Amino acid sequence: IAPVTVARNKAPTETDIGFGPSDPTTTDRSATVSVWPVLGGLIRAMRWWWLGSVVMAGFVGYVIGLVPGLVIRRFLDAASSMARGDDPSTLIWLGALIFMFGVGRGIHMAITATIEPTTQTMGSGMLIAACFSGVMHSRRYPALPGSPGEAVSRFRDDTLVIGRFATWLGDPFGQLALGVGAFVILWSRDPQVAVASVAPIILAMVVSQAASGPVQRARQAAQSGVASVTDLLGDVFAGAAVIAMSRTSEHVIARVQQHGDTRRRAALREVLLNQSVQALSRNVATLASGVALIVSVPAIIDGRLTSGDVGLTLSYVTWLAVLAGFYGDFVLQFRQARVALARLGELVPDTHISQQIAGHRLGIWEPAKGANRQEWLPVETGDNLVSDLAVCGLTFSFPARDLPNDERKPAIAAGIFGATFRVRAGSFTVVIGRAGSGKTTLLRTLMGLLPASSGSIEWNGVEVPDPGSWFVPPRAGYVSQVPRLFTDTVRANILSGTDPALLDLDARLASALHLATLDRDIGAGLLSLTSPVGPRGLRISGGQAQRVGVARMLVTRPSLLVVDDLSSALDEATEAELWSRLISSGPVTIVASSNRPNVIEMADQVIEVVDGRCRVIRGSRSQQNS
After folding, report:
1. 351-371, pLDDT tens digit by residue?
2. What is the DSSP annotation of 266-334?
3. CA 469 to CA 135: how far, in whole Å?
4. Is the Cβ–Cβ distance between 132 and 291 less than 8 Å?
5. pTM value > 0.70
6. In which band, very low, low, confident or very high, does the pLDDT at 138 lie, cut at 50, 70 and 90?
7. What burial class does residue 381 get, using C-beta atoms within 10 Å of its C-beta: 0-12 exposed, 13-18 middle, 19+ buried?
8. Which domains can be identified in the chain, with CATH numbers?
């Protein structure tokens, strides 16, 4: 009588949670975000897999539940007839039919267990690719709402929630067909028994719906707890040496335990609520079966219900109880999908996700289009050479929430405001100013790494519509104060993104090493091209990491060099030697920030930044007037 349920992927438990802390606006956004555009893109991209999953698991998996009850009814009635001396052949054929149904059900479950997880994985993979593309091309500030590790957890877990929910979209139709069909059949046998059978199930569904709000809030709290532990452990592992030297391990362990206790309480509350709702849904079948049997007693005595009708009723009651449980799971999945999409929307706009999925096809048996193709940085051409760079009224201000509490003063805004200057081809421009004045902000806004709110940038007399996509090699190269190095060798870091098929690759590498003064370290045996830089470049010195970043920029031979404060990691003599080599190497246009007098003396133009305001204090008269 009990149905053979399909092994569906249930709502994730506390062991499945890997989400980071929700932004304060996440809850509000999840209440209004629409998952349907993204789901529509997923469905179109994997239409045949999705259709097969929905039909097999979401429709057939439910509707097939009507068959066992009807067969059982005929079987029990035939058994009663045989007991009265009727022909047993009907009973034999019904037994064979039950066996064949079991075999067919097993085949159906095997197909479902293959096609549904595959579809979920495809959907999750498409979302990961779309979000990764969005982050890589994003010019928003900040690029990530949290730590990189927390963003990875969103890629891993939030995309899986949405991919799973996409395969559940056919469930309501199958559930409706099963529920209506079972109720109509029960009503045709005895209306009173039909109502008594479904009443407890409807009550359980109402309770589950009412509990969905607290369940969602408990899940968000559990997500924040997991993320706080994950972020703290990442910081602890990254700073293990500092913790050991400062002898603060006991304090750190206590802090980890405190975060762990908070996470444990939140996870326990979520599990308790989930298990309570699921216990009600799973045990309602027993309650409904008991009520149905009690109500059907008078009809059995009167002969209006046969033993087959009783078996039919119990079979359908069990299926309807399972239906109530799956309905609760579906509602929970929908709410989790909205929260997941809201969190992904903090990484990448929803519209970008939909657009990326619409143009993407991810085959499961063949490699994705372009998977084996590497896009290398272009080589320099005449059109990419700068002859004149004009900046007019460039403005960017940091949102108040990104500033420390003591800096959130209405009278003073952080950023750059109305920056106007001109850079000539072959000139050396130095940006000076005290710490925090806006030097780095100016360079990052110029390169499009921060979104300018107003102003314009002209390259050779033509306005640049999107600095972020324009100021890339070979037009421009940028080195930050702390270059981001990959966990690889020195050579791999310098040549990252450069086509290995270039005929002059070795010459480019040798030139970059010389200009960045790395040849001295290599010659002295302090460094080699095969030396691993380690995580975040920690296995080489800060000055070497800085010069590896410079060499990585120079190997692409950009027309414009933008360098942010080499003095933060280099001694005065090494920095002076590096600039001397760059300037004497040939016509090169440089914009750099530095406060060292010897670098300022080399400059053709000096721009001073004071509280975000820029002014040219040394340069040609035409430059000062501009």
Report:
1. 666 666 655 544 443 444 444
2. HHHHHHHHHHHHHHHHHHHHHHHHHHHHHHHHHHHHHTSS-HHHHHHHHHHHHHHHHHHHHHHHHHHHH
3. 14
4. no
5. no
6. low
7. exposed
8. 31-358 (1.20.1560.10), 382-625 (3.40.50.300)
